[in-house]
Amino acid sequence: MIKYIYFNTNENHWFDVANKLYKEKIAEPILWLGDDVHYKKAYKVFGENVVKSLNMVHRPYEFSNTDYEGQNQKFIFSENYYRSKDICLKMMDRLDLYGLFTRLDRESYFHNLVIWALKKIHDLKPDVLICVESPHDHPKYVIYEICNFLKIPIYKFHTWTLAPLLYLKNMESDETFNIKYDSLSKFNKISDKDIINHINKVKKSGIKYSPEFMKIHKRNQSLIGQLKNLFISDYGRPTFFRSIYLDIRHNTGRLLKRRYNPINPHYLGFFLRKRIMFFRRKNLNKAASIVTSKRDLSKEYVFFPLHFEPERTSNPDGREFHDHFIVISKLRELIPSQVAIYVKEHPNQLRSYIKKGVNGRSPLFYKLVNNIKNVHFLDHSYDQIELIKKSKFVITITGTVALEAAILGKKSLIFGSTYYDGCPNIFKWNKKFNYNKFINYKVKSSKAVEEFLLQKKHKTCVPGFQNGSCRSYFKDYDSKDFNKFQNEKIFLLLKEFFKSLKSK
Fold first, then answer.
1. What range defines the domain where residue 15 resides?
2. What's the domain count of the chain?
3. Which one of 100, 194, 225, 241 is at 20 to 30 Å from 168 when CA atoms are compared?
4. Where residue 317 sits, what CATH number does that domain have?
5. pLDDT tens across 329-378, in order?
């Protein structure tokens, strides 16, 4: 059997498919790092040595003695090591709700992960790493970079934002694994229609257009949405009361056992920690409001809407451009200084009900960006579609704004990896990028965009929810028939993939 490392999410089909592949002696997971919803059943099938709890993701994990003997030591002096250290230390922002997780503690925790993973991969000798989504937490990313360094193939499921679609892609070469299936199925007809409807909606709705995920966030921000979160889980995330319980249990447990807690080293009480969060959010909103302003949209400008952070869409999907400052400074180098760069903050970054917002942005960030010539933060009242239409072009790391721009006949420059790679009117930055050639490129019609998306879907995609978030975005698809269909197609895809891997 093929031996693979498996990073999965909270959707049941990822366990079901892995279990079926194992029972049919096609492939065996030798290291499993996924959502704790699968932990007990995966543990029973694959064993304690294979299945690891997500505690190592959500909380600083206390490793037992790994007995590291210098295995794969060359990694620590490689480009992969330095890149993973930079990216992982930033990923640990997710743990740092109170601004107390210091660099010294982060580095020690990171190096513990490194020696654990180096020894683990040396002992296991996997054939391939399969990621259901981008490895966007520090343990998974460390393993990813080590596999990359050791030339172990790495494949990831990409998802679409237009329909519940998945395709398997080599994370280094961008080579897509193609699979043929019934293009005349009921699901395919519906998803084709959804893609076409989305394009028409962007074209026709003008300034009233809003992506589905933004509508969901707005509903969550409402009074009803916030009251709902007190008692009902939102696609796998704990309710408000459960999150308080987990927070108290974690900190109190360490306090009673007199263990050092890197994310709360001073054992600050519950209410004091909440007070710290309150002032962190207040300072962030104040800093953002100082730099934002109204700007003349008749002047030459390019438009760069920021991603919400911390989130996988920028880190790690942006790779070397996972930091917004690096993107903006690169843009200033590429674009003539008389052309303004208009930056707009992500609306969720400053919303009070999303507590992670304070983890992903420093109040000092806004002053930093303002120190770059002719770069300006826009007032939140500007409509995104209007900004796209009046801009010279649009920039994003991996955001859907590039696809919206392409539909509206505007060029885009992207810095990360997305499902719409190669789409007409969308260009991926590389070292050979030439501003003048880019500006003079003749844009193609929305019909060309539509044809590209449909062709790519039929050639590469299978139906499926990547995670709980995707399921919440596409509730119309959520049914027994769809779940059965997705299980069949994902299994078939992985079966064919492992077969092809074995033949190499």
1. 2-182+463-503
2. 3
3. 194
4. 3.40.50
5. 999 999 999 999 999 999 888 876 666 778 889 999 999 999 999 999 99
Pairing type for strands 165-170 and 462-463 reads: antiparallel
Q: Which of 388, 491, 489 is nearest to 164 (CA)?
A: 489
Angular region, 373: left φ>0, alpha ψ -120 to 50, beta rest: beta
Three-class SS of residue 396? strand
Nearest to 356 by CA among 258, 280, 441, 261: 280
Structural tokens at position 262: 């890197």
Residues 151 and 244 in one domain: no
Q: Is the pLDDT of residue 319 over 60?
A: yes
| CB 163 within 8 Å of CB 466 | no
Q: 395 forms bridges with which residues in the sheet?
A: 413
Query: Sign of the CA dihedral 444, 450, 455, 461?
Result: positive
45-54 own/partner pairs: CB under 8 Å, 24+ apart: 45/19, 46/22
Report residue 41: phi and psi, to 5°.
Answer: -70, -35
- H-run or E-run covering 304: strand 301-305
Q: How far is CA 112 from CA 35, 41, 60, 144, 316, in A?
A: 21, 28, 11, 16, 20
Tokens, residue 33: 């790092």
- Scanning the structure block, which residue is given the tokens 């997500």? 54
Cβ neighbors of 308 (< 8 A, separation 6 or more) are 346, 348, 349, 357, 360
Q: Which of 432, 455, 478 is the last residue of a domain?
A: 455
- Determine the Cα–Cα distance for residues 236 and 229; give it in Å rounded to an integer: 12
345 lies in the same domain as 476: no
pTM of the model: 0.86
pLDDT in tens, 211-229: 555 555 555 555 565 566 6
Contact present, 15 and 41 (Cβ < 8 Å): yes
Report CA torsion sign: 379, 383, 385, 389: negative
The rounded distance, in Å, linking the Cα atoms of 188 and 431 is 38
Residue 140's identity, in one-letter code, is K
Q: What is the pLDDT of residue 223?
A: 58
- Residues of the chain with pLDDT > 90, as a percent, come to 58
Q: Any alpha helices (H) in 55-156, and if so which ranges?
A: 55-58, 79-91, 103-124, 138-149
The CA distances from residue 243 to 93, 147, 230, 312, 373, in Å, are 18, 34, 10, 22, 43
Q: Is the dihedral of CA 103, 81, 363, 224 positive or negative?
A: negative
Tell me the C-alpha distance between 23 and 42, whole Å. Answer: 13
412-414 and 426-428 beta bridge pairing = parallel
Listed residue (35, 87, 28) closest to 57, CA to CA: 35
How many residues are listed for the chain in this entry? 504
